[in-house]
Design a protein that fits this description.
Radius of gyration: 28 Å
Shape: elongated
Strand order of the largest sheet: 1-7-4
Strand content: 15-25%
Number of helices: 0
Number of strands: 9
Oligomer: single chain
Helix content: under 10%
Structural class: mainly beta
Distance between the termini: 69 Å
Order of helices and strands: EEEEEEEEE
Largest sheet: 3 strands, antiparallel
């Protein structure tokens, strides 16, 4: 975690220099490796702990935001990604039709 000022933390996919930096594999930027930013609310009256850091009453300076960084033990390893396809909904039903008989039983 890197402490940052509320409006200084950068985690956008289009950032050239995000707060956490980029991870590379053989000179190729690894998508979504720039981490993410969290901010305290501007006026915090409870001095709550949030994101592993304390928020102060007026949050503008360093510590009013934080960057959470992704690091790989070996950035040159292979990365696998999976995608989720559209949902598939199916039912298997067995229907028995029965006719009541006068004695209270049913004929199937």
């Amino acid at each position: 975690m890197i402490k940052s000022a509320k409006f200084a933390c950068k985690d956008n996919l289009t950032e050239e220099y995000p707060t956490c930096g980029w991870q590379y594999s053989d000179d190729t930027r690894i998508s979504n490796s720039q981490g993410f930013c969290c901010e305290c609310s501007l006026f915090n009256f409870s001095s709550e702990d949030t994101r592993g850091s304390s928020c102060s009453t007026i949050n503008l300076g360093t510590g009013s935001g934080s960057a959470h960084c992704l690091r790989f033990s070996d950035p040159n390893q292979n990365f696998m990604a999976f995608s989720v396809g559209p949902p598939n909904l199916s039912y298997h039903m067995t229907v028995n039709v029965a006719l009541p008989k006068s004695d209270g039983t049913f004929d199937i």
